[in-house]
Amino acid sequence: MTCLRRAATTLTARRATTVFLCGCVAVALAWPVVAVAAAMWKAGQGDVRITCPLTIGGNFQAKTTALTGSLTTDSSHPSSVNGSLAVDLRTLDSGINLRNDHLREEYLEVDKAPGYDAATLSQIELRGLNPEAPEGKGSFTGSLMLHGTTRTVSGPVEVRKAASGVRVKASFPINLSDFGIPEPRYLGVGVKNTVQVEVTFAATP
Amino acid sequence: MSTTTRTLSFLSLFFVAMLWLASAASAEPMFLAKQYTRCTACHYSATGGGLLTPYGRLLSHRELSTTGGTAAAPAAGEEDAPRGEQAFLYGALGSALGPVHLGLELRPSHLRVGFPGGSTSMNLLMNADLIGAVQKNGWTAYGSVGREPPNSAIRDGRVLPDAAFISYEHWVGYQTNDGFGIRAGRFLPAYGIGFSDHTAYSRVYLDLDRNDQVYGVEVSDTMGPSLLQVTVSPGKAEAILHDSGRRGFSTFGRWQLDVTPRSAFVASASYRHATDLDPKSGAIGGAYGFAPAPRVTVWTEIDADLQTAGRGGRTWIAVNETSVEVYRGLWLKFSPQLRTAGGPGFSELRRLAFEADLLPRTHWNLGLSYYHDHNHTFDVDTSTVLLQLHAYL
């Protein structure tokens, strides 16, 4: 009996040891996931394209690669993404100097006051995507500060795994009048009130 | 040289010389590289060419000409400054004509044509036209008066040896804010790509040449990225006025889809009823243009030309035009063109065209073109050098 008890005690101790070790391994394995989910994501390799439909038909695109910012996930609010993304509006290029001059100086008024030279997206909420393991298609809403005015914007977002992080593609429409941007009209040629913004960037931990 | 070859050479020369005699100015599809997919950004006419709008004049000054302005752009709503290199005759009449914009189009040229056994050359004034336009509250009235060169005008089937009066275009149009437009009068119907070279195979062989304007009504509608243009006409304007034997009902349709700001697809169709002298004919075609880089535009148009009379048949026309802005105001173009044989009287033609377009000053365009045309059916070559100064004032 004593031998049996000893054997049983040994088995119980081994099980406890095994369970403890397995727990440690599980925690150890799970930790990087939690750590990555909580990590800061840095935005880079940006490509921002603004498609502007013309009043006479057709459209043109202004684009820039000057997108910066960082994003962090909030485990207590899984759909929220903290941080912000900013675009340097002085670098917007439509391919023609005349258009660039008017775009920056007459309508976006980048020199009017501090902050007018950037468009900043913050308070981002994701829908249909898990911020801890984001991949696939969903939608987002966010606060866009542009031309001294903050308005909520929303649109589809797509996240794909990339070599070192993820590749994010999002788009949303902007009503120029909502942001107090003067109606773009020049010698009979103008831009319609709603323009489409398409943002692509790489997010790396 | 055999008599047949000499005859063919002479006919080729005559034909080639006739081709270049006069030209209504056309739009420049190469500006797709600048993200301009519609003619009406810079021209009053929905089919391009002719008088520039104030926006087009400003763009010519600030973005296209080599010596154009680089200083700060005029404030929004203001026209170009009436001084500086862009000012030559621009605004010379001040506000005496109110909202009427006037332009003068001159095209002095030198033409040299080489053919088997010889060559010839001539100096000519292709265009001398005064063009006026007024635009207000969506309405546009447009018209030109000018001179058609000697050996160009046709009266009752005969070529006039002398210069003649001509008004290439005169029309009235209305455009709503949501993109619906209508115009009536004399204009070149919308079909395919309006290459600036009016001798391009897709223009000259589809009756879209220098004098092929129609009297008619055009209805157009812009729906987002697409543009639909439909023209209905009792016939070519010159036929209605001076050559009734060639008058016949015509209709044209053109649909353009801007795939991106730097690429567009165009589908077109046309139909001309038989006249006393011409068979019933029609055409259908497609074109695609894209700008792979900010200074490069590539357009390709392919059309099927259909004629049902015994002398006619089906021919295919293919035109490619690749344009590169190698320096501000200097565009180089390369254009291979083909028209297949389609029955008796329709030879297979092949062309290689090279062009250097220099825009040294605002509204000035100096062009040097070289064309090598090969009549594959009769194995006859012609080469043409054309030097022209095109001035919009």
Explain the overall architecture.
The complex is a heterodimer of chains A (205) and B (393). With 205 residues, chain A is of the alpha+beta class. Chain A contains two helices and eleven strands, in the order H-E-E-E-E-H-E-E-E-E-E-E-E. Chain A has helices spanning 2-38, 97-107; strands spanning 40-53, 59-64, 67-74, 77-88, 118-127, 136-146, 149-162, 165-175, 185-186, 189-190, 194-204. Chain A has an eight-stranded antiparallel barrel. A two-stranded antiparallel sheet of chain A has the order 9-10. Chain A is elongated and about 50 Å long. Chain B has four helices and 19 strands. Chain B has a 16-stranded antiparallel barrel. A two-stranded antiparallel sheet of chain B has the order 4-5. In chain B, strand 4 and strand 5 form a beta hairpin. Chain B is globular and about 60 Å long. The mean pLDDT of chain B is 86. The chains are: A alpha+beta (205), B mainly beta (393). Chains A and B meet through strand 2, helix 2 and strand 9 of A and helix 2 of B.
Entry keywords:
heterodimer, A: 205 residues, alpha+beta, 8-stranded antiparallel barrel, 11 strands, 23% helix, B: 393 residues, mainly beta, two-stranded antiparallel ribbon, 10% helix, 49% strand, globular
**Contiguous uncertain segments of 5+ residues of chain A:** 7-13, 16-37
How far is it from the N-terminal to the C-terminal residue of chain A, by CA? 59 Å
The order of strands across the largest sheet of chain A is 1-3-4-5-6-7-8-11
State the order of secondary-structure elements of chain B, H for helix, E for strand: HHEEEEEEEEHEEHEEEEEEEEE
Query: Average pLDDT value of chain A?
Result: 83
Oligomer: heterodimer
